[in-house]
Amino acid sequence: MNKINKTICFYFQVHQPYRLSKCNVFEIGSKENYFIGPQNYENQEVFEKVANKCYIPANKVILDLLKKHPEFKVSYSFSGVFLDQCLLFGDIGKEVLDSFKAIIDTGQAEILSETYYHSLAWIYSKDEFAKQIEWHKKLIYKIFHKKPQVFRNTELIYNNEIAEFIREMGFKGIVAEGWDYYLQWRNQNFLYKPKKVELHPEDRKIAKNYRVRKTLPKDFSLLLKNYKLSDDIAFRFSNKSWTEWPMGADKFASWANNAEGETINLFMDYETFGEHQWADTGIFEFLKHLPEECLKNGIGFKTPSETIKAYKTVGELDVPHLMSWADMERDLSAWCSNDLQKNALERIFSLENKLKSTLNKLNKEDRDVVMDIWRKLQTSDHFYYMCTKYWNDGDVHAYFSPYESPYDAFITYMNTLSDFEHKLENKYQLTSV
Amino acid sequence: MQILMFGWEFPPMNSGGLGVACQGIVEGLSHHGHEIFLVLPKVSESMHACKPDNLNLLAAHKSGGHIECMEIPSSLYSPYCTIESYTKWIEECIGEEPENMYGKNLFEEIHRYASRGAMYAGKVPHDIIHTHDWLTAEAGIQAKKISDKPMVMHVHATEFDRSGDNVNQQVYDMERRGMEHADRIIAVSEFTKKMLIKHYGIKEWKIDVVHNAVKPNFSTYHKTHHLNKTDKIVLFLGRMTLQKGPDYFLKMAKRVLEVMTKVKFIMAGDGDMTEQMIHMANDLGIERNVLFAGFLKGDEVAQAYSHADLYVMPSVSEPFGIAPLEAIQNGTPVLISKQAGVNEIIKNALRADFWDIDDMANKVIAALQYDSLTNTLKDHGKRELEQISWQKQAKHIENVYKRITGK
After folding, report:
1. Is A358 an 8 Å CB contact of chain B?
2. What proportion of chain B, given as a percentage, has pLDDT over 70?
3. Contact, B185 vs B206, CB < 8 A?
4. Which of A389-393, B72-76, B215-219 has the highest mean pLDDT?
5. Which of B350, B362, B380 has its CB closest to that of A26?
6. What's residue B264's pLDDT?
7. Rounded Cα–Cα distance for residues B334 and B324 (Å)
8. Are residues B26 and B104 in the same domain?
9. Do B370 and A415 touch (CB under 8 A)?
10. Under an 8 A CB cutoff, do A414 and B370 touch?
11. B299: which residues sit within 8 A by CB, 6+ positions away?
């Protein structure tokens, strides 16, 4: 075996939203079961489909690889709403969850921290953001008996301030997009330190209140996604008009070998394996051979925590504005740029104060139900479905929605929210103070 | 190329979308340098006013001859509605000397138009014969006999759209005869193309789809009207016939008013169902919120669109439907029946099945309640509309010509 001269850090995002059932204006006041999902996209059916195409077969491949190559390492970020669905959907949910547990139990896989509801809470409420991280932490401990040390935000939304907040919460590191606009001449295959910024005193207080550990780690590192190599797998793998098609594990390993730096961070949706790239594209074969081919080239594997431990940061990265891992723009336009999205986001987060100030009127059971609904309505996917930009481009690959149009998504969302507000007033007698 | 075209109506003397589409097509074609000889039942001074140089307007009865063609049986039928409203339209639109233009009996007139108009095939130079719908199909068939040039039949609507299940056999026969004689058929939508294949047995390879467009709009109406300012306005604008679904509009209105009270529903247009609709509004108990505006002409149309907060086209069957494009042009968002060809080119619209009253009402209410929704629809709709023009569509028609002439 060759001497290890660099490592790959895999992080797979595992998420399923609670898509909203169709809701028309006449149902307001009497709508039940918001979260079954629209016709033909019932959440349970989508879950089962993705489980059979991706989670179960992909987990089998990963588990075999971890057993075969003790050097192989991976990491996952599970949204809380995904794990909830595993617990909700009977045998298939259990099968999926057990297969993830088996992977985690090898000790070669790390779990990352994120917001329980895969939400955009950071933008609207720091308190809600921190709370959802805490909830997620508890859920991960309950299911996997692990305590995440590295944070990833919804859709890799990131800036200096988020990094500082997360550092203040006690995490060792954070992951973000390795976008050239901010990197400029610098190389994404190294660890960086986020540029230090002063948090608002109120925000610092919140972060401290929700510390995940007693003492802050000495160092805090930023792991940047190598988007070229990540996208070669996640987006280009099956594209026959791509000049590099077909891409075998050997070819990919040689590219990784040629890349300068210490750590190649490959971040992608886990659904890449079997769902975005179907089994017949050969994606599983590719995955099966990848560790072996990499090791042949002297490329090892590390989890995010191991990466942070192994390498020193080489400099400071300044990201003053919010960036994400989405689209050419790497901005937040997919979730909060058009009027529909702004209107819907403003309305869901405007409920925060009302809920928090009146919640103590409720018994614990009702309180949990109400807060769970409010938070499920924060999941970023709802706003993504209202996005008009890809839809107008007719780019079916970039645009996926269970609704006929962004307008339908918006109407369903607003009617559901109206029903929720109606119930707060009538069923729960929560009137604004 | 030189085109001998047979049209039935032409602005400002038109009763519906056929004349508007015909104008768009000839202007688009002339933009690309084609010379068009357009034969009409009647040519008026006002038509000459702003026509392009390479468009020649010819009156059918002035061809100086006539050809013996298939005898068309007399019937009390009109393409638009009932014979009464057809006659009324003739009187309104044409006034004097009706005997020279559109006859009192439509079938008789179509026959006369065909036998005389076709004679131009021996008089004007042309590479192509282009006809519109069943009304001028016979003229095209006769012209083809004279000049032996290839014929294109442009289908804007079929008898199935107009009459639902009560198809008039004579009209159907004339449509089908035209399609069979045509060398190629242009359908205004995929929706219509499917209909031609299904109901007329036309081979798929014979049909090209060319969607309609709208002319650039220069109207500058603002959202001002004389109704109570706090009232929202939902507009129906179209012929009041079965095809356009005015009854579904009223049922929707009833449902909307259960949730919102400050809404006025304006029904503009005339047709054989007008009276029935007035009664229906009464029976539903919503007559205070429904206003009947009658048939709108010229500028009034643009004005009506711009006054409305939402335009609804609940058509039962709509081969294309230019109206939503005109509404968007006037800055008004639209809700379109899913059974309309225009859906193929406009994405930024609300959509509902015409029969799904609750869904339609649900979307109307959302549009009236959320400015974010109407603003987004307006902005994106307008941007989308800018991509569509008669010049572009004329290029597609030109390609159809090229395929059959081999030029």
Report:
1. no
2. 88
3. yes
4. A389-393
5. B362
6. 96
7. 6
8. yes
9. no
10. yes
11. B219
Q: Are residues B172 and B249 in the same domain?
A: no
What pLDDT is recorded for position B347?
93
Closest Cα in chain A, distance from residue B301 (Å): 27
The ipTM assigned to this model is 0.90
What confidence tens digit (pLDDT) does each residue in B334-391 have? 999 999 999 999 999 999 999 999 999 999 999 999 999 999 999 999 999 999 999 9
pLDDT above 70 for B221? no
Contact A410 B366 (CB under 8 A): yes
Amino acid code (one letter) for B43:
V
Lowest mean pLDDT among A114-118, B57-61, B194-198, B218-222: B218-222
* Cβ-based neighbours of B283, under 8 Å, separated by 6 or more: none
DSSP states along A204-239: HHHHHHT-SSSS--S--EEEEE-HHHHHHHHTSTT-
Considering only CB atoms, which chain B residues are within 8 Å of A39?
A: none
pLDDT digits (tens, 9 = 90+) for A276-291: 999 999 999 999 999 9
Query: Within 13 Å, how many C-alpha atoms sit on residue A58's CB side?
Result: 26
Q: Which residue has the tokens 């009947």?
A: B292
Q: Does residue B276 sit within a domain?
A: yes
Q: Which of A23, A24, A422 to mutate to test the interface with B (most CBs of B within 10 A)?
A: A24
The reply to whether residue A392 touches residue B376, judged by beta carbons under 8 angstroms, is: no
| Amino acid making up residue B129 | I
Q: A391-430 in b/e burial notation, b at 16+ Cβ within 10 A? A: bbeeeeebbebbbebbbbbbbbbbbbbbbbeebbeeebeb
For chain B, the average pLDDT equals 88
pLDDT at A397: 55
- Return the pLDDT at B101: 45
A25 Cβ under 8 Å from any chain B Cβ: yes
pLDDT for position B223 = 54
Query: How far, CA to CA in Å, does B223 sit from each of A128, B331, B381?
Result: 42, 9, 18
Listed residue (A303, A238, A218, A232) closest to A268, CA to CA: A232
- Which residue in this structure is represented by tokens 């023009």? B389
pTM across the whole model: 0.90
Chain A's closest residue to B373, CA to CA, is A340
Where along chain A do its domains lie? 6-317, 334-426
Pick from A24, A339, A392: CB nearest B347: A392
Does the N-terminal peptide bond of residue B79 adopt cis geometry, omega within 30 degrees of 0? Answer: no
More confident of the two residues B162 and A100: A100
Q: Strand order of the sheet with strand A221-225?
A: A150-151, A173-177, A221-225, A191-194, A313-317
Chain A residues 409-428 within an 8 A CB cutoff of chain B = 410-411, 414-415
pLDDT tens-place string over residues B254-311 = 999 999 999 999 999 999 999 999 999 999 999 999 999 998 887 888 899 999 999 9
As a CATH number, domain A6-317 is: 3.20.110.20
pLDDT confidence tier of residue B44, bands split at 50, 70 and 90: confident
What is the total count of domains within chain B? 2
Q: Do A388 and B351 count as a contact with CB atoms less than 8 A apart?
A: no
Task: Say if the Cβ atoms of A392 and B351 lie within 8 Å.
Answer: no
Nearest CA in chain B to A26: B362
Q: Is residue B222 part of a domain?
A: no
Look at residue A72 and tell me whether its pLDDT is greater than 70: yes
Could you tell me the residue range of the domain that residue B256 belongs to?
232-385
User: Hey, are the CB atoms on B365 and A25 less than 8 Å from each other?
Assistant: yes
Are B19 and B105 in the same domain?
Answer: yes
- Looking at the predicted structure, is the pLDDT value of residue B97 above 50? no
Chain A from 270 to 289: CB within 8 A of any B CB: none
The catalytic residue positions of A are: 155
Contacts of A339 in chain B (CB under 8 A): 371-373, 375-376
Contact list, B361 vs chain A (CB under 8 Å): 25-26
pLDDT of residue A2: 66
- Those of residues 292-351 in A touching chain B at CB distance below 8 A are 338-340, 342-343
Q: Residue B244 sits in a domain of what CATH number? A: 3.40.50.2000
